[in-house]
Amino acid sequence: DAGVIQSPRHEVTEMGQEVTLRCKPISGHDYLFWYRQTMMRGLELLIYFNNNVPIDDSGMPEDRFSAKMPNASFSTLKIQPSEPRDSAVYFCASSFAQGRTGELFFGEGSRLTVL
Amino acid sequence: AQTVTQSQPEMSVQEAETVTLSCTYDTSENNYYLFWYKQPPSRQMILVIRQEAYKQQNATENRFSVNFQKAAKSFSLKISDSQLGDTAMYFCAFMSYTSGTYKYIFGTGTRLKVLA
């Protein structure tokens, strides 16, 4: 398996623009997580899905952020409109609950810079 | 609420020496898992070692071992014979899984630099 795949790796945009980050989890994994990493706040859980259903979105900072998982092999995190304080590295991770190991498999992250 | 604390923002160690990274956590749950993840400069996070709370024996993975003190809620990582490739950010993480609900919390990380 290719692992968790995220795109784009880097995104530079201007304030007010819409940003869409994409994630393809490992095939067969039933949990998908979106994290945001900044120097100030470390790794923050934004939202996670189980079998494509959002379970906990309490970490989503505000209504400008939305996440979807239309099928088991694809998820998006959208920011509209973007602001400079959204600049961060966004990680997607997937997990297989029945394996009971608890390990999260991370993508390489999407570095977002909002000017 | 669960919390994970890493009190050492940065550490350095000479190559071939041993270093210990500290982690404490707080939870009222009895069944949970603890992890150490490594994030090298290339950014992708990878699992280093995991520990099930119900196991008394400390986990080991080659040069990596943990000192798990459940009563003290302490979970330190020892890296023996440090190598330059161990230079990375290390995150301690707590996980519990109950009735289909995950709690997965990371500490703020310790930046480790291995010196030649």
| H/E topology pattern of chain B | EEEEEEEEEEEE
> Helix count of chain B, per DSSP?
0
Major β-sheet annotation of chain A: 7 strands, mixed
Q: Percent helix among the residues of chain B? A: under 10%
Supply the number of helical segments of chain A: 0
Query: What oligomeric state best describes the polypeptide chains here?
Result: heterodimer
* Secondary-structure element order of chain A, N to C: EEEEEEEEEEE
**Greatest interface by residues involved:** A-B, 22 and 22 residues
* Whole-angstrom Rg of chain A: 13 Å
Determine the fraction of residues in helical runs of chain A and give it as a percent range.
Answer: under 10%
**Can you summarize the main beta sheet of chain B?**
6 strands, mixed
Categorize the overall geometry of chain B: globular
Structural class of chain B: mainly beta
Strand tally of chain A is 11
CA-CA gap between termini of chain B: 41 Å
How much is the radius of gyration of chain B in Å?
Answer: 14 Å
Overall shape of chain A: globular
Uncertain ranges of chain A? none
Instruction: List segments of chain B where confidence is low: pLDDT < 50 over at least 5 consecutive residues.
Output: none
Please outline what is shown here.
Chain A is built from no helices and 11 strands. By secondary structure, chain B is mainly β. At the A-B interface, strand 5 and strand 9 of A face strand 5, strand 6, strand 10 and strand 11 of B.
Descriptive labels:
heterodimer; A: 115 residues; mainly beta; seven-stranded mixed β-sheet; four-stranded antiparallel β-sheet; 0% helix; 54% strand; B: 116 residues
